[in-house]
Amino acid sequence: xxxxxxxxxxxxxxxxKTIVATLGVVFGIGGIGHxxxxxxxxxxxxxxxxxNAIGEANRMWLHGNEPAFTIIPNFLITxxxxxxxxxxxxxxxxxxxxxxxxxxxFLSLFILLFLVGxxxxxxxxxxxxxxxxxxxxxxxxxxxxxxxxxxxxxLSKLWQPFLIVSTLLILFALQIAIFGFVPGVSNAxxxxxxxxxxxxxxxxxxxxxxxxxxxxxxxxxxxxxx
Length: 226
Fold this sequence. Notes:
Elements: H1 14-40, E1 50-52, E2 67-69, H2 75-95, H3 102-115, H4 123-133, H5 141-146, H6 149-155, H7 159-179, H8 188-219
Antiparallel strand pairs: 1-2
Helix pairs in contact: 1-2, 1-4, 1-7, 1-8, 2-3, 3-4, 6-8, 7-8
């Protein structure tokens, strides 16, 4: 068993860290995307807290508005802030999720991204991502008790495929939100339904990846109490 007294990079649940880091990078990119379109709306007032990140001049399909919330009453500054925070999330997720208090900073950055126009739809994902991140440096005894050894062995092989499928689905949904591109579909309402369904399926595979990642980390000698 691995001792839990230290929280250095060699004493973490690596699969969970990778899952959280991937989620952080994906939605950090999403925040940057929001910021780009907000800056394109120029040095103009937002006229409220709820905005459309994509303005009328840059909208590519009927529902391609990308709703967002901002406490900054200016599109240009909001966009710059969203891009900076999105970049910070990518860096933090990629390089520092092994740190002792990484989950707190991870959540704080995503809350800040939400407050500066990084998007509304991501909220459920960063809450779930934060919950997952709290397991990076903690024992996985709950998983060890819940999942039988045989099931853990089976699931431990699936965390990466599940994560890849989840990431591709989420990225596809994000591009639909901006471009409205779904092969063979032109009806805006159908496109919107496909976008939501794709995002929901991506979330399902993310959760499956996390469960499988827990099984993998346990089988590889992840953090457990003596």
